[in-house]
Structure formats: structure tokens, C-alpha cells
Amino acid sequence: MLENLMNYYIETFQINEGLRTFFAPGRVNLIGEHTDYNGGHVFPCALSFGTYALVRKREDERLRFFSKNFEAFGVVEADIANLAFDNKHDWANYPMGVIKTFRDAGYKIDKGLDVMFYGNIPNGAGLSSSASIELVTSMLLKAMFNLDIDMLEMVKLSQKSENDFNGVKCGIMDQFACGMGKKDHAILLDTNTLKYEYVPIKLENISIVIANTNKRRDLATSKYNERRFECESAVDALQKQLNISFLGDLSEEIFEKYAYLIENEIQRKRARHAVYENQRTIRSVNALMARDIKLFGELMNASHVSLRDDYEVTGIELDTLVSAAWDNGAIGSRMTGAGFGGCTVSLVYNDRIEAFIEKVGNEYEQKIGYKADFYVASIDDGAREI
Fold first, then answer.
1. Helix (H, G, I), strand (E, B) or coil at 339
2. What domain range includes position 93?
3. Which end of the chain lies in a sparser environment, N or C, as judged by fewer CB atoms within 10 Å?
4. CA 81 – CA 114 distance, rounded (Å)
């Protein structure tokens, strides 16, 4: 594949000298959804598919971006010293945002670049294609300009880019998983302190199966930012009597004792999910480490119910896939990502995977009217040069 990408790069930019190649994975979150911007815990892992970037440095200050996934846009051009969000730039706003954020942070990026991207993450599936683009851009900037920056700082700047340049108020989980991923491990991350722990994923005769609803979702125009505001409003209400900064600071018991302070019923439901999901995530990791896969699956299921009923970010497509998974042998199944479409993640015994995909796929197509796509996930390392 890399040879084909190199040939395509040469055809696009008419040059190949000084060419270097980078990769950043997508991610799937096993449990801990909509907790990252609430100061709670998440449990993601990096995937074997992601975003490739082929790049060479220019002698002027011109930036040229091309994506093999969005060929119709052609080459998107900009000047390195004059980067601003523009809807007409579409996908290219993500690498542009990273470059501007690095420069604003004081990193010396004084030459232009010719960059070609190719991603094999299903676009719009909620497996974090945007964070993957951001981290692969961060990696190539570090390498091409010999920047003195570590991965954690690249993760933070990538999140800042998505928040400020692209206007998506995401938490840090996506960028953290894409940058800090480790093969055959998931990451238990406290998003409040950024304290993290690599947890080996030892699933004997069990695989992670990702199902894509094929319903496109766009975080920037979805209700994602609305949910974040609702949670922040709930914190404001609780702070009348509690010394907290985030919903993740609360145990279930303390939340139930003071939930009456949140007079808005919708905000109370959102807060309940954030608090309980955080505690579910901690318990699920303990279950996994104790090899109690049954309990881990039950906590995954409870996570989906909470996301469906209290956080209201699922919808008929995700609910249909999860319900079919529960009925067809999944140890546990839940939506993953921001919701409003995207993907589910299920734990399935290896000898049942083929039948699982067939039955769940058929039920989904019969009810929704179009097909879902399925992937048996492999857990890989984070962003790197290849």
C-alpha cells in the first residue's frame, strides 16, 4: 500500500525527494463515554487502521494538502503565516489547525509543506479520524522541523487545535489514545489529572468487534457541544454546596445526595450519566484485570443503557445494533464515540464471530434499510514515523 501511496504522491505533487511517511491510528473506547470533558476516566485503545501522511518540506512558506479520501477537493493551498478556519477547506482545516496551534505555541515552523493524507478509518464512523489526522500532522511537524516536543504536549496541542480552530469542544481522550496508544493494551486515563495506566488486553478466545452504523455524524454540528454545556451547567448548580470542578469528582453516593441542587431535569440526567459512567469505567478495568469478563460485559451493557436513556446520544441505528448484539451472543456491547451514529463495540467469542456478524448484520439491514460494516479490531501502537 505504501508504494501505491508514494506513486500517487509523486503524481499529485510531481516530486518525491525528501519524502517521509508517518502514521497515526484511529481509536475505539471500550468504556467511559462522554466522561473525558467531565474530568472522569476513559478506557480507549489505538487501532491498527488510521491515517497515513506523506510529506516533503518546501523552500517557500506555501502549504499544499491533498487527501486521497477526498480527491474531489483537489489540492488545498494556504500560506503558513495566514491560517484561519474556512468552511471551503473542509477536511484540511484539521492539519491547518494543528500547524497554526503549534506556531502560536512558539514552535518554529517556517517553511511550507506538501502533504498527502490517506486514511483507512471509515469516515464519520466515530473512530476518531479527526484526532488521527491531528496526531499524524503533529508527528510530521516534530520530525520535519526537529521540534523539541514530547508526545503528551503534541496530544494537548492537537486537542487545543480541535477545540479552538475547528470549534469542536472535545475532551482529550481521542488525541491521547491516538498519540499514546500501545500495542495489545488499552489506556485507563484520568482525564482530570492525565494520570494514565496501560492495561494489557488479554481476551482469551474473545475478540473486539466494531460495527459501523454507516450513519454519518459530524461532531461540530451535532448536539455534542450542547451536552457539554448541560454538564457544565450541572456542575455550576452542584457548586452551590460542593467544592468540585468536574462531575468526575463525584461518587454515585455523593451525587445522589446532592442531585436535587440541579433543578433542570435534563441537566440532572446528563450529570447522572457522567458520574455513573466514570465509576463504571473504574470498575470495568478492575473486572478486566481480575479476568472477570462477564462483569466487564455487563458494565458495557449498562454503559449503553445510560447513554441511551440519560445522555440521549444513541438513536435508532446504534440501539438496533446493540440490541441485536445482546440477542446474538455478545458478552457485552455498547455504542462507542460521541454517538448520533458512528459505531458500536462488542466483545464476542471467536468461534461465534462469523454467525454474530451475519445475524446482527441481517437484523440491522431489515430494520434500518441499509447495511452495517463490521471490523474485528486489532490493538496497535500510537502515532509514529514509518
1. coil
2. 2-190
3. N
4. 15
- Which residues are identified as catalytic? 174
Number of structural domains (the chain) is 1
Per DSSP, 122 falls in state: P
C-alpha 130/C-alpha 168 separation (Å) is: 10
Q: Is residue 261 part of a domain?
A: no
- Grid coordinates representing 198 are 496501560
User: Is the pTM of the predicted complex or chain greater than 0.90?
Assistant: yes
- Would residue 99 count as lying in a domain? yes
Contacting residues for 84 by C-beta, under 8 A, at least 6 apart: 100
In a domain, 320, yes or no: no
The helix (H) or strand (E) run that includes residue 176 is helix 173-180
